[in-house]
Amino acid sequence: MPESAGSPGEADQVRLAVTPLQCRGILATPESLRKLRHQLTAWALSAGLRREQAQDVALAGYEALANVADHAYPDGAGGVVDVEAAVRGNRIEVVVTDHGEWRQPVLDPRPVALRGRGLLLLRASADHADITTGDAGTVVTLGWDLV
Amino acid sequence: MTPSSSELPASELHVTCEWREKAAVLSVSGEIDLLSAPEFEDVVAGALAREPAVLVVDLRKVTFLCSAGLQVLASAHRRLADGQVRVVSDATVTTRPFTSTGLDAWIKVFPTLEMALGTGSS
A45 contacts in B (CB within 8 Å)? Predict the structure, then answer.
């Protein structure tokens, strides 16, 4: 039996046993971002999420990563990104950090815009989404409630 | 008759193109992400170059779809008459990206190929 850390009656605390996923300093290329997405999906499934929820984690996490690849490093220099996924309390949390410049999507006034759907997908796929931009870069924190 | 079906090899993405009269049907399998979106775009452009009246993109074997894939389809939508780019999807992973971004207002999502082609009785 897993340790219940002194919280009797909370049988589902087995989730605490899930090891956090930590990937630091990953060069944001399409190849590496695909690999990160696969790792994130595998981690979400190992954390006990249903397949559909794991797909949400993969999509929102990937859109955050894709924004880094697309925008964070406009000078074309290889940008790096950190990804962390963990179970925190009753929530799955995925944090994507880059050290470049986050750009808000440029609004396309045409009725069927080509770009700018990444953030919509990110927000629609997560229960909680927070984007914090600072001089040092951007932190995207995504959360899913475990019910 | 000339062959109307062709295999279009791709690294992770796999796409076949088949013609149903004036409708081009692209059957896609694999993952549509930043890595494969350029290939997907090439295949869509290839089909559009043959001036179909309707472009049906069957995504039922697609296991991942992100905004880069939506961008390819939004671009195709601009090349054809309204309502003539259609998607076949029967799973959340491929349906929700359209509904949650509102793109389904322009690109309709159908559960079966027959319905997308407008040939089904149901």
Answer: none
ipTM: 0.86
Would you say residue B28 lies in a domain?
yes
Q: What is the pLDDT of residues B40-62, one digit of tens each?
A: 999 999 999 999 999 999 999 99
Which of A138, A45, A146, A132 is closest to A88 using CA atoms?
Answer: A146
* Contact residues on chain B for A111, CB-CB shorter than 8 A: 106
A90 burial (CB, 10 Å; 0-12 / 13-18 / 19+) is exposed
pTM over 0.90: no
Residue B63 confidence (pLDDT): 95
Q: Does some domain include residue B119?
A: no
The parent domain of residue B76 ranges over 11-111
Query: Does residue B117 sit within a domain?
Result: no
Candidates B66, B100, B101; nearest CB to A66: B66
